[in-house]
Each structure stands twice: as structure tokens, then as C-alpha cells.
């Protein structure tokens, strides 16, 4: 390990956990480490084997299972963070912890604090970073970041029961039925309510990689316009974008809208959008039997075998914790791929965003 890497590791080991208040050696390492040795294991689809296990110089990875719940209690129950920290440990050269119990704002505070400790950090979160390009243009914006300002100003209004903007559907109110509007019905309408990034990872027929396509089998693609009903992602998106603004203002780079600076002498943390189903594959994560069964099948993978019992127990007990764990494991295994990310060059992607790992 380089001198700078050793200094970084010592800095992380000496500092206290910025989420739990406990040092890694006292909580994260105690909870996260198990028996076994480091190894690439099975890996996720779409990743070049040459990248797996490479020391990418990334100090920390956080995968967040987000929630648009309006209540603080609901957020603390549903929002989970899987945290991989590089310390020479047994899980891809580090250790993994699962942490919950924070609201959206509290989690963002913690991420900002962690970034000061480990600036070579990647954070993946599962809400949409923008909306379809036609909707962005309709509101006079030419980039996702301009559109964030519009969401910050109008997002809660679009979610309000009294709102008459029927394109945000799934929620009944005095001036909207909650039904999908005609504009989004039929084949053309189904495409209209999705971003190109959603098609690339959620519409089976549009996914060129057969392995990735198999991972979304049986899942209906969800639109950021859907704000109610099973699997709705719109509420989390509308309440997530203002928090993304906070992180950006604190120095986080946001892919694919900006050039990542993980390699820079003065590194800056990176935000990416993730879609957990691409990482878990076909699994009924809401089933209390399916989650343990999925995890049990991976105990033959040396990285999963090295996870601490406490981490595995949390993932078994909560579908949100399960998504956070599987996501952070995939991100840690593939961490060298983050160094290859570049700012988008086409206008549509700069308005709509992209999903990490989607083909």
C-alpha cells in the first residue's frame, strides 16, 4: 500500500464513526468482520473481471436504500445505508456495516461529515436524479441541475393532495383521480413517462445484456411520475432531489452531470444513481423467507462469508437493509469502475441522468 493509502487508512481507523459515534474498531469492524478470506466471488453482471479486486484508491462506498416517507419515524425505519470502508479487511479489502435510524436530512449531514474524513468516497442512492427530457424542457430548464431548482420549488406541491397536476399519478385528491393519465397509456405513453436511463435498466426488451435483462424479469418499470402505489419511485425522487442539491453544494460531484474527481489530488466524493434490482437479480425481497434464502446461497462467495453476523441479520430482517447490503457489496467489488466514469456529452443524458451499471 502506498504511503498516502496508509495515511488514509490510519485516518479512518482513528476517527470516530460519523453516523454511530463509535470508532470502526469498536462497532463497524466488530459487527462487520466475520470468518473467511477476501475474494471476488460471483460478482454482478456487466463488470469486467480485470476490474474486480483492483485497489482503486477509493476509501469508502455507501449504498443507500432511500425513502420518500413524509414522517421522521418512517424515514428512520426505511432508510438504510450499507457502508464499505477500506481497511485491509476481508470483504474486498475492507469491512461492511449496515446502518439505519436516520431521516433524510440526518443522513445527508452524516454523508457530508464522512466526505470530510474520506473524500475518495462514492455514494449510490436509489432515486431518480432527474425526469424525462421533455418534462425538463417544459419547465424551461436545459440541464438536470437547473431542473433541481424547479423540483425544490414545486416538488412538495406536486405531491400535495390538492394538486391538480394529473401527470403525477398514483395519489387521489380532490382534483386528480390517482389513475395513470392517458398521456402515459399505451406503448408510446409508457415510453414517454420514462427516462432513457429507466428504459436502459428497467424495460426488459430494451436491455441488450441478457444477464441484466434476466435480473429485471417480472418487474414492471416504474416512472418518476408515479407517486403512489406499489413500487412508486416518484415520491422518493421529489424528496430526494433537494437533498442531492445539498450534497452538491457541499462539494459532491454528481455523475453523469459532472466530471468525477476521485483521482484528483484534492479528491471530491461522487454521487451515482443505482437500481438495486440490477444488483440483486430476481428475488422477492419483501418475503421474510426469500431474503435469508438469497443470502444463504451466497455464503459460498468468500466476500459474503466474511460478513459479520450482525450485518447479515439486519439484511435478513428488512428488505430495505437487504437492498442496501447487496448494493454496497456490488459497488465495493466493482469499485475500480467508478474511476472510469466520465461526464456525459449528449444533451438528453445531461438532462435525464444515468444509472450506474445499466447497459
- The total number of structural domains is 1
Cα(first) to Cα(last) distance is 33 Å
**What's the pLDDT, averaged over the residues?**
84
Helix content: 25-40%
Strand content: 5-15%
Major β-sheet profile: 6 strands, mixed
**Count of alpha/pi helices:** 16
**Overall 3D shape:** globular
The main sheet orders its strands as: 3-2-1-4-6-5
| Rg | 20 Å
Q: Output the helix-strand order.
A: HHEHEEHEHHHHHHEEHHHHHH
Structural class: alpha/beta
Give unreliable regions as ranges: 1-55
Number of strands: 6
Describe this structure in words.
Helices cover 40% and strands 9% of the residues. It is an alpha/beta fold. The protein has one domain. Strands 3-2-1-4-6-5 form a six-stranded mixed beta sheet, sandwiched between helices. Residues 1-55 have low confidence and may be disordered.
Briefly summarize what is shown.
40% of the residues lie in helices and 9% in strands. With 359 residues, the protein is of the alpha/beta class. The radius of gyration is 20 Å and the shape is globular.
